[in-house]
Amino acid sequence: MIDEVDELLDTAIYKEIASQAVYIAGQNKTEDPGAKTLMNELASEELKHSRRLKGLKERCLAKRDWHIKQVPDLKVSEYLTGGDTLEGAALQDVLVFAIKREQQSVEFYSRMMGAIRDEAAKRLCQRLVHEELRHKMKLEIFYDDFFYGED
Question: The CATH number of the domain where 73 resides is what?
Answer without folding.
Answer: 1.20.1260.10
